[in-house]
Amino acid sequence: MKKVVCPGSFDPITFGHLDIIKRASSLFDEVVVAVLVNKTKKSLFTVDDRMEMIREVTAEYKNVTVASWSGLLVDYCEENKIQAIVKGLRAVTDFDYELQMSQMNLQLKGVETLFMSTAPAHSFLSSSLVKEIAAYDGDISGYVPAQLVERVKSALSNN
């Protein structure tokens, strides 16, 4: 069984994230979407909220599960018998950073990293940009699933 992890902050999950998850789910037996627990980073949503939203928008993919992790991703992979990491790449700048991470992960624990280029329609998209647009009352419906639009706006107005 080929089991992979798609890691990230997913604060909030975007159509770009969903594109990578969907494509990975068609290639692998099991895809674990792992939400990073990072206490040093101020997030809009709690880890539990992000996991709930991801479960909601990936429910149609029966081989996708959602979890959280803190610490080294390769340790999480080893503990959960995950063979590879799947990462989406938007631009060359993503590649520069992710290449170093992938080489370190391979060196540390022998965990492979597979890169998927994002669909051109999502190549500019990031959770940070979505939050910025929403903070100025912009329309984010083209960037996140419909059921998350009001949640993002509500979370921003409460912060």
Description:
The chain has helices at 15-27, 47-57, 73-79, 92-109, 127-135, 146-158, and strands at residues 3-8, 30-36, 64-69, 84-89, 112-117. With 159 residues, the protein is α/β, with parallel strands linked by helices. It has a single domain, classed as HUPs (Rossmann fold). Strand 2, helix 2 (47-57) and strand 3 (64-69) form a beta-alpha-beta unit. The termini are far apart.
How would a crystallographer describe the biggest sheet? 5 strands, parallel
Q: Could you give the order of strands across the largest sheet?
A: 3-2-1-4-5
Helical content stands at 40-55%
Radius of gyration: 15 Å
Strand content: 15-25%
CATH topology: Rossmann fold
Q: At the first level of CATH, what is the class?
A: Alpha Beta
What's the number of extended β-strand segments? 5
Which runs of at least 5 residues are low in confidence (pLDDT < 50)?
none
CATH architecture: 3-Layer(aba) Sandwich
CATH homologous superfamily heading: HUPs
Instruction: Report the principal-axis shape.
Output: globular
Tag the structure with descriptive keywords.
159 residues, alpha/beta, Rossmann fold, 5-stranded parallel sheet
What secondary-structure arrangement, pairings included, does this model have?
Layout: E1 3-8, H1 15-27, E2 30-36, H2 47-57, E3 64-69, H3 73-79, E4 84-89, H4 92-109, E5 112-117, H5 127-135, H6 146-158
Parallel strand pairs: 1-2, 1-4, 2-3, 4-5
In short:
The chain contains 6 helices and 5 strands. It has 159 residues and is an alpha/beta fold.
